[in-house]
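mind reviewing this stuff:

——
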Amino acid sequence: MSILPFDQRDGVIWMNGQIVPWRDAKMHVLSHGLHYGGSVFEGERAYNGVIFKSREHSERFRTSAELLGFELPYSVDELMAAKDAVIRANGVRDVYVRPVAWRGSEMMAISAQNAKIHVAIATWEWPSMFDMATKMKGIRLDIAEYRRPDPQTAPSASKAAGLYMICTISKHKAERKGYADAMMLDWQGRVAECTGANIFFTRDGELHTPIADCFLNGITRQTVIDLARRRGIGVAERRIMPEELATFNEAFVCGTGAEVTPVSEIGPYKFTPGNISRTLIEDYAAEVTPKAPAF
């Protein structure tokens, strides 16, 4: 099945304060963000026209930019209004929302203090990836070769575009071997996350998840922890070594795109999706569903 390239779609994109035709939202090939990684982004979802935790995403977007040494020229409230505006302008309620910011073309060297900061927000249709029956079969994960870097060597709390290069490499390798994704270790060889989602395990009715200190403490991750605690499910955020995976019963990943998706296999380790995974899938679906449509 052929998929229309993202630069050839119809609709509109919010760019630098204006709604522009989709195909006119362009950047110059000599933009600093393209050459030197001076770019940050967000991944959000709107359900029935309402973005889930829009403010938290906009706050993180601004923080990501600050960690890369630049400031977005729009406030959190302005970003939230822009996201809502482009969703309405495109007329589709269940969408993925992609804000992105980058340093422009005024300077082309390592230093770029005077480069203009550009911001764009696009939306496109993206329904839930799996139905419940498919989800409960679980996905298969490879174990990635690349590791999440030491937080003293990279701005790991930023959703910086450059930090995802090793994620793309790892996911491509996994897919070539027939896996859906790859689990990454951290710089000390401990379990970290997947290429674009956080990971959880269960044992004796309790959740276990790696400490998010060299990768993003995902907004979906935080939501799942809150939902589990509301259910009286204990949550242990701690260091997890790969060999410990043999002691867990269930495993699942979570993120804006994946939502909550059970895992059946990670390399040589097997898991059986069960009641905790199913409960959190259902609770998360209820949490993101707005009480009334936005438009």
